[in-house]
Design goal:
It is a single chain. The chain is an all-alpha fold. It has a single domain, classed as Na+/H+ antiporter like fold (Up-down Bundle), CATH 1.20.1530. The chain contains 14 helices and no strands.
Length: about 300
């Protein structure tokens, strides 16, 4: 157990440092916007570009693992959406936003460093394979569901166009696609340019994780506490358990694939759940609460999942 805590502790210490720096006014909470902008538009795209550029796709793109991961994500999304409608009487569009909170995990900012520390670079390569599909699949499901659910929803053609524009204008997606393209055509990047990319990419995760801590001071756990706990139970327990069932029992994949997929599924909700809710002005308070709730509870849940996965 102590070994697991030593694995995840550095990541959460950085989050706590950012949180305390903001609470103490050493850094203003508004700084999180600048940190987030720097991370999303510059450092993380370069990190993903470098990863895709150097990635061995024959190893990373393991389709049974990817299938097990995303079928579990879709099940979690619809389960959470149905529960939001039935038990919390959410309107259709709000229910979609609530469901989105349950299956958009913090795969990049927390998933990458924790996976690498827990299972090494072999598992990390598999995680990049998941990440290559993560944004387009999750955003497509969320946005199309939202447009269908809203009474003022647009036609399918307009919805599809809007979805594709949102996905492919995302800086993270641009970094991914450029890295994949460069990899596939065998582009040779000059050493001086690659050194510059490495310098920026190496600092991407610590900066972004620190920014999470700063940003958390802006969110509050409001009256949606019970609903937030419902979403957290799906995101942190049901979702990774379903991935574990598919990859380990049903598909009987080697343990490294199970470890990579379940670890990413076990991550807390990413900041994109609030961005998605804000985009449609649906369940924004709940989305903010879920980010804080799942991040806090994930200290315990991630410890449990890593302990289980390392015992395979």
């Amino acid at each position: 157990m102590l070994e697991i805590l030593f694995i995840i502790a550095p990541v959460f210490i950085i989050i706590l440092t950012g949180y305390l720096a903001s609470v103490s006014s050493y850094i203003k909470s508004e700084t999180s916007d600048l940190i987030n902008s720097l991370s999303i538009k510059v450092t993380l795209p370069l990190l993903l570009f470098r990863a895709m550029y150097n990635l061995d796709f024959s190893t990373a793109l393991h389709m049974p693992m990817i299938f097990g991961f995303f079928i579990s994500a879709i099940c979690s999304f619809f389960l959470c959406m149905v529960l939001a409608r039935v038990f919390w009487k959410r309107r259709p569009g709000e229910a979609v936003a609530v469901g989105f909170c349950a299956f958009f995990t913090n795969a990049v900012l927390l998933g990458l460093p924790i996976t690498e520390r827990a299972f090494g670079t072999e598992a990390l390569a598999l995680v990049y394979g998941i990440i290559a599909f993560h944004t387009p699949i999750v955003y497509s499901i969320g946005m199309i569901s939202m447009e269908v659910a809203r009474r003022d929803g647009a036609s399918f053609q307009v919805t599809l166009k809007k979805t594709l524009k949102s996905i492919f204008s995302n800086p993270l997606m641009i970094g991914l696609l450029l890295g994949i393209f460069s990899n596939q055509i065998g582009l040779t990047i000059p050493q001086s340019v690659m050194i510059s990319i490495n310098m920026v990419a190496d600092g991407a995760l610590p900066i972004a994780i620190f920014g999470i801590g700063v940003a958390l001071t802006r969110y509050k756990i409001k009256s949606e506490m019970k609903e937030s706990l419902m979403v957290a139970s799906i995101a942190l327990v049901f979702y990774p358990a379903l991935v574990f069932f598919f990859t380990y029992y049903l598909l009987e994949l080697p343990k490294i694939y199970v470890q990579a997929a379940v670890t990413i599924a076990a991550m807390p909700a990413g900041l994109n759940v609030y961005i998605f809710a804000s985009l449609y002005n649906r369940a924004m308070g709940l989305a903010a609460s879920v980010i804080l709730t799942t991040t806090l509870l994930s200290v315990v849940s991630i410890t449990f999942w890593l302990q289980l996965l390392r015992s395979l």
